[in-house]
Amino acid sequence: MTNLKQEITELAREMGIDKVGFTSKERLDDAPPSGDMSYVLPGARSAISLVIAFDKKAIRAYLAKEDKIAHVKDHSGAYIKLGTVAGAIQNLLRERGYEASCPLANNQYRKDQPGMALVPPLSFRYVAVAAGIGWIGWSGNLITPEYGATVAITSVVTSAELEPDPLVEADADHCKDCHLCSASCASHFIAMKEDTDVSIAGHRYTHNKKASNLRCLVTCGGANGMRTPDAKWSTWSYKVLDLPGPGDDDTFKQKVLEYCQDPKNRLLRGLIDYTETFDLPDWEHFNTFIEDQFVKKGLFTCGNCMLICWPDMKDRKENYRLLTTSGRVMKGAEGPVVVRD
Question: Which are the contacts of 215, defined by CB distance < 8 A and separation ≥ 6?
Answer without folding.
Answer: 187, 188, 189, 249, 252
